[in-house]
Amino acid sequence: MRIEHIALYVNDLQAARDFFVTYLGGSSNDGYHNKNTDFRSYFISFDDGARLELMTKPGMTDQEKPLNRTGYAHIAFSVGSKERVDSLTAELKSEGFEVVSGPRTTGDGYYESCIVVIEGNQIEITE
């Protein structure tokens, strides 16, 4: 068994799509639009077969997302090396994204950084 995909609702669908394609090497489909409900989505595929569905629809609320909360905490992306973690973290920081931790080696041995990227949602970049 494997996880088929993870889905994330966003308000700015295009900005979310561009982030995952530009910074994390994702490949996007052409998108889906349900004209009856105005639901829209993109599937972003990654080299190892993982997929992320980005979705939006009218009338969504965007609650505050404190980092210490229940629910999904982050999505982690392995970029292959400590050097790539460092360089991508520096690039995202220079683009104005909030780095909330790292790069660092955690107590359980991961080399990572955590960044708030899409509408208050956090990603982890790990080697």
Describe the structure.
With 127 residues, this protein is of the alpha+beta class. The chain has two domains: 58 residues, Roll (2,3-Dihydroxybiphenyl 1,2-Dioxygenase, domain 1), CATH 3.10.180.10; 55 residues, 2,3-Dihydroxybiphenyl 1,2-Dioxygenase, domain 1 (Roll), CATH 3.10.180.10. The chain is 20% helix and 38% strand. It contains two helices and nine strands. The strands form two sheets. Strands 1, 2, 3, 4 and 5 form a five-stranded mixed beta sheet that branches. Strands 6-9-8-7 form a four-stranded mixed beta sheet. Strand 7 and strand 8 form a beta hairpin. The longest helix has 13 residues. The chain is globular. The mean pLDDT is 94.
In short:
This protein has 2 domains: 58 residues, 2,3-Dihydroxybiphenyl 1,2-Dioxygenase, domain 1 (Roll); 55 residues, Roll (2,3-Dihydroxybiphenyl 1,2-Dioxygenase, domain 1). It is built from 2 helices and 9 strands, in the order βαβββββαβββ.
In terms of DSSP E residues, the strand content is 35-45%
Could you state the CATH homologous superfamily of the largest domain? Answer: 2,3-Dihydroxybiphenyl 1,2-Dioxygenase, domain 1
Query: What is the architecture of the largest domain at the second tier of CATH?
Result: Roll
For the record, give the distance between the C-alpha atoms at the N and C termini, rounded to a whole number: 24 Å
- Using the CA coordinates, give the radius of gyration: 15 Å
Largest sheet: 5 strands, mixed
Mean pLDDT, nearest integer? Answer: 94
Give the class-level CATH name of the largest domain.
Alpha Beta
Question: The CATH topology of the largest domain is what?
Answer: 2,3-Dihydroxybiphenyl 1,2-Dioxygenase, domain 1
Outline the low-pLDDT stretches: none
Number of domains: 2
**Tell me, what's the shape?**
globular
Question: What is the succession of H and E elements?
Answer: EHEEEEEHEEE
Summing up helix and strand content along with how strands pair, one would put the structural category as alpha+beta
How many beta-strand elements?
9
Question: Helix proportion of residues, in percent?
Answer: 10-25%
Counting H and I runs of at least 4 residues, what is the number of helices?
Answer: 2
